[in-house]
Design a protein that fits this description.
The protein has about 475 residues and is an alpha/beta fold. The protein folds into 2 domains: about 270 residues, Aldehyde Dehydrogenase, Chain A, domain 1, CATH 3.40.605; about 180 residues, 3-Layer(aba) Sandwich (Aldehyde Dehydrogenase, Chain A, domain 2), CATH 3.40.309.10. The chain has 15 helices and 21 strands. Helix 9 crosses helix 10. The structure holds nicotinamide-adenine-dinucleotide.
Length: about 475
C-alpha cells in the first residue's frame, strides 16, 4: 500500500497521533488513488498551533524584504513543477488540463504579487494637533491564523490566503478540504524549498468537525479565514466569534447573467456557457441563472442549448470542454437538483443525466421556464446546471437577479450604457461585471460577496487580502 502523506508541523513531516489515514481518488477514474493523508485528531492540531505560536514573534520580526524573498522563492519552486502540479490538480479535482494550468499559474502569480507587498506594508503619517508631536499608524500582523479551504480551487485559494498571511508576518495552520489536499501539500513543499522557517506554515489534514471546528475555536488562534459553503461558514463564523477573534468567511453563490435586447447573442452565449459549464459548474462564481429579456429569449435558448449539446465531456487529462464532478456525492447532489427542477415545473432542454462510465461525469444541463421561487433558481447547485428565466424588462431582470440570498458575482450583457451603469449600481453583489462572464477574478483587486455569500467583514486578494491579516496601531509621540 502507498505510504500516506504526512502533516507538516514545525518544519517536520509527521504522522497523526491516531495513525488513521484517508484516500483521495481521481474523479475521472475512481479506482486510481492519488494520495493518502492523515485523518488528524485534535492533538495533531494542538501541536501545529503550538508550533505556529512559537514561530510567530521571530517571523513578525523578519524584515519584510526577507519574507518577500521567501515568498518569491515559493513562486519559483512552484513554477519549476508547473507541469506536474497541473497534472496532479487534474487528477485530484477533475478540472480540465487548461483549467488546472490556469489555476496553477494564478497561484504562482499570487506568490510573486505578495512577495512584493511584503516589503511595502506601510502605514500612514498624519498631522498632529500640536507641534513637537508625531502621529502615525503602523500595520502589525494579527498573529497566528487558521486557514480552512475548499476543494474546488485547491491551489489558488490556499495561495490567496497563505501568501498575504505570511507576507504580513503571521504564522499559519492550514486545513485543506479532504477531497483535494495534494495541492496544498505541494505548496507547503514549495515553502520548505524556499527556506521558510520552521513553524511558520503548518499543514494538518482531516475532517472539518474533528480539526476544522477546533481550529476556528482555539484561544491561541487570532484570526480565521474560511472559504467554503454558507452552511459550514456560518458555523465557523459563530465558533470564531465566541472569543472575538477576527473572522472572514467567503461562501456560496447563485450568480446571474442578465441578457438584454441590445446584447450580441453569440457573445452572450459564450459568456453564459463558459460561466455555467466551465470547471463543471463547480465555481463559487459559476453562472447558474441566465435572466433573459423576452425579445431575445427564444434566440438565446436555442443558442445556449446548442452550446451545451456541443460540449465534450471527459477526463481532464484529455483536456475536453468539461471534466467530471469531484466526487460521487457532488454528482448525486447535481442529479437531485435535476429532479427538483423537473418536479417544480422547469423544462429540461439539454443534458440532465449522468454520463456512462467509471468517473463522476454529468451532462451539461439547461433548464428553461424557470421561475424565481423554484429551488433551481434559489439554491447553489454547484454543478453544470443552468436555469434560464424570462423577464419582460430591465426592472424585472434586476429584481430577479437580486431575488436570492446570495450575492457573490453577477454580470449583464448589453450595449446600452445606461443599463450597464444601472446594473452596476443596483446589483446586490460583491463582483459586478459588464459583458463578462461571472467566473474569473484578478488577483490584485478585492474579491468577496454580499449577503449570504460572505461574512462581509473583509475582502480577499489585492490590498484587501493584507487588511484581514494585519491590525493597525496608532502611535502618538511627543518629543
Ligand atoms: P465545505 O463548506 O463543505 O468545506 C470547506 C472546508 O470547511 C473544508 O476544508 C471542510 O473540511 C471544512 N469543514 C467542514 N465542516 C467543518 C466544520 N464543521 N468546521 C470547520 N470546518 C469545516 O465546502 P466545499 O464543499 O469544500 O466547497 C464548496 C463550497 O465552497 C461552495 O459552496 C462554494 O460556493 C464555496 N466556495 C466559495 C468561494 C468564495 O470565494 N466565495 C470560493 C470557492 C468555493
Amino acid at each position: 500500500m502507498e505510504t500516506a502523506y504526512r502533516n507538516f508541523v514545525d518544519g517536520e513531516w509527521i504522522e497523526s497521533e491516531r495513525g488513521d489515514t484517508f484516500e483521495v481518488r481521481n474523479p475521472a477514474n475512481p479506482d486510481e488513488i492519488v494520495g493518502s493523508y492523515q485523518a488528524s485528531v485534535r492533538a495533531d492540531l494542538e501541536a501545529a498551533i503550538d508550533a505556529a505560536v512559537a514561530a510567530q514573534d521571530e517571523w513578525a520580526d523578519t524584515p519584510g524584504p526577507e519574507r518577500g524573498r521567501i515568498l518569491k522563492g515559493t513562486a519559483i519552486a512552484l513554477e519549476e513543477q508547473r507541469e506536474s502540479a497541473t497534472e496532479m490538480l487534474v487528477r485530484e479535482e477533475g478540472k480540465t488540463r487548461s483549467e488546472a494550468g490556469g489555476e496553477v499559474g494564478q497561484a504562482i502569480d499570487i506568490f510573486h504579487y505578495y512577495a512584493q507587498k511584503a516589503r511595502d506594508l506601510g502605514g500612514t503619517a498624519k498631522s498632529p494637533s500640536a507641534s513637537g508631536k508625531v502621529l502615525y499608524t503602523k500595520r502589525e500582523p494579527l498573529g497566528t491564523v487558521g486557514l480552512i479551504t475548499p476543494w474546488n480551487y485547491p491551489v489558488a485559494i490556499p495561495a490567496w490566503k497563505l501568501a498575504p498571511a505570511l507576507a504580513a508576518g503571521n504564522t499559519a495552520i492550514i486545513k485543506p478540504a479532504s477531497a483535494a489536499p495534494n495541492m496544498t501539500r505541494i505548496l507547503i513543499e514549495s515553502f520548505d524549498e524556499a527556506g521558510l522557517p520552521d513553524g511558520v506554515a503548518n499543514f494538518v489534514t482531516g475532517s472539518g468537525s474533528e480539526i476544522g471546528t477546533p481550529l476556528a475555536e482555539h484561544d491561541d488562534v487570532d484570526g480565521v479565514s474560511f472559504t467554503g459553503s454558507t452552511t459550514v461558514g456560518t458555523m465557523v463564523a459563530q465558533s470564531a466569534a465566541d472569543d472575538l477573534k477576527r473572522v472572514q468567511c467567503e461562501m456560496g453563490g447563485k450568480n446571474p447573467t442578465v441578457i438584454l435586447p441590445s446584447a450580441d447573442i453569440e457573445s452572450a452565449v459564450d459568456i453564459v456557457g463558459v460561466g455555467a459549464f466551465g470547471t463543471t459548474g463547480q465555481s463559487c462564481t459559476a453562472c447558474s441563472r441566465a435572466i433573459v429579456h423576452e425579445d431575445v429569449y427564444d434566440e438565446f435558448v436555442e443558442a445556449i442549448t446548442q452550446y451545451a449539446d456541443s460540449l465534450e465531456v471527459g477526463p481532464g487529462l484529455d483536456d475536453p470542454d468539461m471534466g467530471p464532478h469531484v466526487s460521487r456525492s457532488e454528482l448525486d447532489s447535481t442529479l437531485e437538483y435535476v429532479d427538483h427542477a423537473r418536479e417544480d415545473g422547469a423544462t429540461l432542454k439539454s443534458g440532465g443525466h449522468e454520463v456512462d462510465g467509471d468517473g463522476f461525469f454529468v451532462e451539461p444541463t439547461v433548464f428553461v421556464d424557470v421561475e424565481s421561487d423554484m429551488r433551481i433558481a434559489q439554491e447553489e447547485v454547484f454543478g453544470p446546471v443552468l436555469a434560464v428565466m424570462q423577464v419582460g424588462d430591465f426592472e424585472e431582470a434586476l429584481q430577479a437577479a437580486n431575488d436570492v440570498d446570495y450575492g457573490l458575482s453577477a454580470s449583464v450583457v448589453t450595449q446600452d450604457i445606461t443599463e450597464a451603469n444601472r446594473f452596476v449600481e443596483e446589483i446586490e453583489s460583491g463582483v459586478a461585471k459588464v459583458n463578462e462572464k461571472t467566473t474569473g477574478v484578478e488577483l490584485h483587486v478585492p474579491f468577496g460577496g454580499y449577503k449570504d455569500s460572505s461574512t462581509n467583514t473583509y475582502r480577499e486578494q489585492g490590498d484587501a487580502g493584507l487588511d484581514f491579516f494585519t491590525t493597525t496601531k496608532t502611535v502618538y509621540m511627543n518629543y
